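Worked example 4.2. Below are the chains of a multi-component assembly; read each line carefully before continuing.
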Amino acid sequence: DADVTQTPRNRITKTGKRIMLECSQTKGHDRMYWYRQDPGLGLRLIYYSFDVKDINKGEISDGYSVSRQAQAKFSLSLESAIPNQTALYFCATSGAAGTGELFFGEGSRLTVL
Amino acid sequence: GQSLEQPSEVTAVEGAIVQINCTYQTSGFYGLSWYQQHDGGAPTFLSYNALDGLEETGRFSSFLSRSDSYGYLLLQELQMKDSASYFCAVRGFQKLVFGTGTRLLVSP
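Applying the procedure described above to all two chains together yields the following structure tokens:
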């Protein structure tokens, strides 16, 4: 089983719908992240959390919200999806602060029509 | 803020050596990471440099010069399976900011 699991892996939805992407991890890490990947733009940070009571905005948080339900669970919501939110979304975790190493889930491909 | 620059594409042949450069501008710098991502897959961690110098891990090496705001990933004895995208990422305060990636194409 994967250490970082994302659901759903693929989702097609319509403009204006509410969407939730879920992430769970078994690595025991406190730090969790949501990134968005678009062709030619690399990975851009949406939100991150260092523990259950800590939520921080990243570079591109507008139009997104998150919830850290437990140490192991971090979900990303699009309250009213729009077509330019079509992208590949990755959840990641990290342990100690000084390693520069993130562990990524397999990604959730979202298409907004 | 932070910005990173790396070439969009590099091509090489099997058995060759290739260097992927990364320059960065950042207001806070703790280290430089490298990640590999195959098409359809998730990024996977390759290396991290916090101090100046060369770090070697098998066929892959990573170099950092903090004074030049520059680093590179060196891949030796290239194999077809090395065809992938490679991302440099700056570790700043609390978070990792990624470059736009370099697509490496290895041909026979």
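Take a moment to check your reading of the output against the notes. The interface with chain A takes residues 8, 30-33, 35, 41-45, 48, 50, 87, 89, 91, 94-101 of chain B (CB under 8 Å). The two ends of chain B are 41 Å apart (CA to CA).
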